[in-house]
């Protein structure tokens, strides 16, 4: 592979190869931790030399997108290498209410923007995924199954993030929800009672706004959902703090 012309100059072959490796990872549907083709295989598939591929791998390793294990091959890097998402966990204290409330603020901003973008960008298959996830959540509520409710809830927010077509928001939403799940040790414990009933309706409002292609209505519905969740969280904390000891 020779250097490629670009606006304002030429691009080194290894730079082009690095982009092509990322495209290949996406095309093959490889996930963090999955083994990648060898350097020889990559060179063959990209139509370039192994030397160029090796330099491209060095770049991707430095960016945290690829992990090279001596004697074992190449792997897609885990989440900690992409956006540094896992590093949030090093300072987040799930029993610190200030941290929990800051996390809700962070989630509110995320969910508003992912819903806004999803209303603009969602493909038909992505709209179906959002609808299906909302249905699973509703079924979990109606049957009193906490596991099903939580499964649908996770899938719903993940599907909206996917429909935003912004990989950074997808990673950030996943990490924030993971941290919020940790905070459940002092807050809501996945009850499928009153809060779940409201969540089901709030999900439907978000879904309908995204389906209608109304970005601001979707953002408003998402904000209302997070605000209501925080409200219930505060009530639960107050009840635990001030209820008589048994």
Q: What features would you highlight for this structure?
A:
two-stranded antiparallel sheet, 9 helices, elongated, 4 strands
Account of the protein in words:
- There is one protein chain.
- By secondary structure, the chain is mainly α.
- The protein is built from nine helices and four strands, in the order ββαααββαααααα.
- The strands form two sheets. It has a two-stranded antiparallel ribbon.
- Strand 1 and strand 2 form a beta hairpin.
Condensed summary:
66% of the residues lie in helices and 6% in strands. It has 246 residues and is mostly helical.
Structure classification:
mainly alpha
Task: Please state roughly what percent of the residues sit in beta strands, choosing from under 5%, 5-15%, 15-25%, 25-35%, 35-45% or over 45%.
Answer: 5-15%
Order of strands, main sheet, comes to 1-2
Distance between the termini: 74 Å
Q: Output the number of helix runs.
A: 9
Uncertain ranges: 5-9, 81-85, 186-193
Number of strands: 4
User: What is the mean predicted local confidence, pLDDT?
Assistant: 84
Biggest pleated-sheet summary: 2 strands, antiparallel
Helical amount: 55-70%
Shape: elongated
Over the alpha carbons, how many angstroms does the gyration radius reach?
A: 22 Å
- Please provide the ordered H/E string of secondary-structure elements: EEHHHEEHHHHHH
